[in-house]
Amino acid sequence: MTAKGNYGYAKSLKRKRMLLMLACFVFIMADVLVSLIFFQTKKTLFVVLACVMAIPFAKNLIGYLMVIKCEPLSNEDYEKAEEIAKERDTIFAYDISVTASEGVLFYPCVAVYNNNVIGLLQPGQNQKKKDAVNYLKMVQQGTPTKPRVVVVDSLKEMKRELDRLNPPKEDQIQADIRIAERLLELGF
To answer: What kind and span of H or E run contains 152?
Structure first.
C-alpha cells in the first residue's frame, strides 16, 4: 500500500477498503450458508461468528464510503505539481484528508513551505474556501509555530503563492517537517 502523503494513497486506500469489505462479506455469507446447509438451522455458532464478522465489514464499508469521493490529481497534474515542487525545493503531500465533526474534506495536494500551508481544493467539492481553510487550520494545533493557511483552486495559484514566499532558513525547515507530520495525522 502507498504511504500516507504520497501520490496514489487515496486510490490505494479505496482498493484496500473494498477488498477487506468484500472479504468480510464473502466470509459472512459462506458462514451462514454452511450453517444452513449442514445444520439446517440458523441457531449455530457459525451464525454468531457471522454476526461478529459484521463489525469489521461495517467498519470497512464506512471507510470505503468516506474515501469514495476523494479524487486524486490526474497524472498530468501530478507531473506539474512535481515540477513546481522541484522549482521551490519543497515536498508536496498528496491525497490529504482532514476529518472533523462536521465531515471530511479532501485536498489532492498540499504544500508546506516556510511556515505556510497551501492546500489545493478538490474540484467539484461543495465547500467554501473559508470552510476549507478552517479545516486545514487544524494543522496549527500542536505545532510550536502557527503556520499561515491558504487554500487555492488550481496548481497555477499554488505556484503563485509559493513564488511569493522567501526560501526557508534551516530552523524553519525543521518546523515545516513538524507541520507536515501534523498534517498527515489529521485524516484517514
So the answer is: strand 148-152
pTM: 0.82
Hey, what's the cell of 45? 455458532
Answer yes or no: are the C-beta atoms of 73 and 7 closer than 8 Å. yes
What is the dihedral angle through the alpha carbons of 146, 131, 118, 162, rounded to the nearest 10 degrees? -110
Q: Is 148 exposed, middle or buried (0-12, 13-18, 19+ CB in 10 A)?
A: middle
List C-alpha distances in Å: 117 to 48, 149, 163, 180: 49, 5, 14, 9
9: Cα separation from own chain's centroid: 7
75-88 vs 155-164: helix crossing angle, rounded to 10: 10
pLDDT, mean of residues 27-55: 90
As a whole number of angstroms, the distance between CA 93 and CA 83 comes to 14
